[in-house]
Amino acid sequence: MNPKSAIKGRGAQGNVPNRFFELSHEMRDDFLEFCHKEGEQSDNNKTLYLEVFPKTIVNKVDSPDVGMMYSMNAYQGCEHGCIYCYARNTHEYWGYSPGLDFERRIMVKKDAPRLLEAFLKKKTWKAHPIVMSGNTDCYQPAEKQFEITRQCLEVFLKYRHPVGIITKNALILRDLGLLKALAKDHLVVVNISITSLSEDTRRILEPRTATIKRRLDTVKTLSDHGIPVNVMLAPMIPSINSHEILALAKAASEHGALSIGHTIVRLNGAIGQIFSDWIRKTMPDRADKVLHQIASCHGGQLNDSRYGSRMRGEGKIAEQINNMMQLAKRKYFKDSTTPHLNTDLHAQFKDGQLKLF
User: Which of 232, 238, 337, 346 gets the highest tally of CB atoms within 10 A of its CB?
Assistant: First the structure.
């Protein structure tokens, strides 16, 4: 397969069947009819924004190895197009494919700020950090148009509630003023995802994300303004970016990050098929090697849902990656710590303003 045959500017190279539908022609016909009414051709590779109306916005995270208890997502689907993204599988619940549909059919939750405010005002709610982007990036390209994330940050500030952010988009700097105000009371931590220092790798692995330089500059700008930043070297993919761990850690440290974290790639559900198709089109010379090494990290399978081992893997290759991460932390982050977020102020601002006692 010639790499030049790959679809430019996208991660997935096509759609795969939705596991909840057996090629539902009714669903497909309805979608094509909608595209026709909107004046969009069904195959022109443009992104379509669809407003949805959820009843709630904050989700309790039950997975014990994720590192967060509550999350929220202003958007479903993500135009960044990261080929490895675990969130692709969730697009099937909306009736779409986790392939190209995930990147081109973005559900927009315009009511998220109101829903968040109602949640934070609940008498039974005791403050606990809520992570924006537990599933899809809250600063993906749609945010530039809809500004839902910005409105949610205004709600978090109004109620002095702690918030975590995960992103790989420099658009976060648009909200620097809000982030500084939150950081003043230790109410925010930002996680910037940086998976490679190679632009060639970034372009095909994460086609519509900010460049590596812009992400590193974002880490520095946030850090220079007193906003704590953790850099996520995630996911580590054997024979694609795993050799860059020390260089990535060094760059993160030099740009002011307080800490680093990582995961080893796992290709659950339809992602295994999507990733395999992608790598055979973009890196045909090493496709078999990479897929074999990923499988060796997860008991011989691309798919791994076992709590405790799914994020760190097992076997010799996973052990090498994990050991290298420990070395990177000792070398570049020996005395660094990420501050705990403040959960004490929210009770005093539960009605949106400081209560007088």
Answer: 238
Neighbours of 307 (CB within 10 A): 10
Residue 294: CB atoms within 10 A of its CB come to: 29
Burial of residue 186 (number of CB atoms within 10 Å: 0-12, 13-18, 19+): middle
Residue 124 pLDDT:
95
Return the structure tokens found at 131: 């992570």
| pLDDT for residue 228 is more than 80 | yes
- Hey, is 354 helix, strand or coil? coil
Query: What's the rounded Cα separation, in Å, for the pair 116 and 153?
Result: 10
Q: Binning pLDDT at 50, 70 and 90, where does residue 44 land?
A: low
C-alpha 222/C-alpha 86 separation (Å) is: 27
* 256, pLDDT greater than 70: yes
Pairing of strands 70-72, 58-60: antiparallel
Question: Taking Cα atoms as reference points, which of 184, 79, 231, 189 lies closest to residue 140?
Answer: 79
252 CB contacts (<8 Å, ≥6 apart)? 194, 216, 219, 231, 233, 260, 332
Put simply, whether the predicted model's pTM sits higher than 0.70 gets the answer: yes
Which pLDDT value is given to residue 353?
83
Per-residue b or e along 234-249, where b marks 16 or more CB atoms closer than 10 Å to that residue's CB? bbbbbebbbebbeebb
Please state, as a whole number, how many other Cβ atoms lie within 10 Å of the Cβ of residue 53. 9
Q: Which bin fits 133, alpha (ψ -120 to 50), beta or left (φ > 0)?
A: left
User: What tokens does 320 get?
Assistant: 């090498």
